[in-house]
Amino acid sequence: MEIEDLKELWKQQAERFEPRNANELAAMIRRNSTDIVARLTRSVWFELGLTLVAAVAFLIYALRLPTGSLKGISISILLAFCGYCIYYIKKLTILQKFRRRDDDLKANLTWLVKNLSSYLRFYRRSYTILYPVYFLLGLLFAALERDFDTFYSLITQPTTIIIVVSIAAIFYFVSTWFTDWYLKKLYGNHLTRLENLLRDLEHA
Amino acid sequence: MTRDKETFLRLINTHQGLIHKVCIMYENDRERRNDLFQEIVLQLWKSFPGFRGDAKITTWMYRIALNTAISAYRKQSREVQTQDLDETHQNIGDVDAYEHNDENLRRLQWAIRQLSDIERAMIMMALDEVPYEEIAETMGITQNNVRVRMNRIREKLRKLLVIGHGD
To answer: Which residues of B, range 34-93, sit inside 8 Å of A by Cβ?
Structure first.
């Protein structure tokens, strides 16, 4: 069968589609996009909003506290919230760069691969930094719960040092492994697929 | 309704067959095909202000539709590749719009679905008589590359259609 014969056959199917009416089409342009970038952007906006609301509530609570360890903890949590806000804004900035649809297929795929890779790198790096911060915050809260001198004498004992370092190492490796697994599961396969498509186009 | 919106909807209404074809070639499941259709219309609408009319409307539509379909996030990206002719029959046959499809058309659809995403995009445009120059422009490759690849695709399709006929 030659391509010319197939063209005739191909044309026939156009007459068999159930056409969408104007109202259906108009409704489609009012809906939210379901593409990966739009989904990621919506989820980051949601997290940013939630963090801001929690930060304001925490600020009101912290301002009412008398000076003391609880106020110290509240301020350190507030600082963590500020860090998170910067993190979400950076994520949104990266996601904004994804928005290109009218390029040719190769340019669009190149752009997507580049930006999705940098987004995942940023995601991974930020969690690599955040996990030790969580760990240190945990130690700080433990110190504040006991009095500082008792905590200091306990933490400087060789056995305690070995235990803390071992827990820190396990915590770091498990959390890094989990982040890698999570990212691969969510977006890694999609990225690999895009890379393969690009390779397919480049080796035409 | 704004003038732009009216013009856009009229254009989509006239050329919606193109979107249907892209959807049926890139999604098996009826629901997901419907989602893809809606997503393509939305992406076309978002890109419409940038459409200056220096390209043919169908070329512009193909570019957006293929970009949307090919780069869409799919949980089971291999699903399309592993489908057999019977499944194609079921997946296409259960849609009201395709109930009159004849065997040859179904076989052609099945054969195209066995090709890679990129090859599928190229053959679809070729079957719609899009000139090689515009296929090259849409894909971002040279006309010479289009020619070479089209020869390979034609050969693959020929073999697939023979297999499909044997079924």
So the answer is: 35, 37-39, 41-43, 45-47, 50-51, 60, 63-64, 66-68, 70-74, 77
Please give the residue of chain A at the shortest CA–CA distance from B69. Answer: A35
Measure the CA–CA gap between B150 and B158, rounded to whole angstroms.
Answer: 12
User: Which residues are CB-contacts of B63 (< 8 A; sequence separation ≥ 6)?
Assistant: A102, A103, A104, A105, B55, B138
The domains of chain A are located at 21-99, 104-204
Residue ranges of alpha helices (H) inside A97-188 are 105-145, 148-155, 158-183
Residue-level pLDDT at B92: 45
How many other CB atoms are found less than 10 A from the CB of residue A39?
A: 13
Element (H, E) at A200: helix A189-202
B16 touches chain A (CB under 8 A): yes
Burial of residue B58, with CB atoms counted within 10 A of its CB: 0-12 exposed, 13-18 middle, 19 or more buried: middle
Answer yes or no: do A7 and B16 touch at CB < 8 A: no
Asked if residue B139 lies in contact with residue A201, where contact means CB atoms within 8 angstroms, the answer is: yes
Q: Please answer whether residues B67 and B139 qualify as being in contact, where contact means their C-beta atoms are separated by less than 8 angstroms.
A: no
The structural domains of chain B, with segments of one domain joined by +, span 3-166
pLDDT averages per 10-residue partition of chain B, 167 residues: 83 90 89 91 90 81 92 60 51 44 80 93 92 93 94 91 68
pTM: 0.78
Name the residue facing B21 among A13, A29, A103 (closest C-beta).
A13
ipTM tops the 0.85 cut: no
Task: Using the structure block, give the residue that is written with the tokens 């190769």.
Answer: A106
- Average pLDDT of chain A, as a whole number: 84
Q: Chain A: nearest CA to B117, how far in angstroms?
A: 8
Taking alpha carbons only, the member of B77, B56, B70 closest to residue B137 is B56
Please, are residues B52 and A40 in contact by the beta-carbon 8 Å criterion? Answer: no
User: Would the CB atoms of B77 and A189 count as touching at under 8 Å?
Assistant: yes
Task: Mark yes or no for CB contact A28/B60 under 8 Å.
Answer: no
Distance from CA of A97 to the nearest CA of B (A): 15
Q: How far apart are CA A49 and CA B154, in angstroms?
A: 53
Q: Which residue of B has its CA nearest to A27?
A: B38
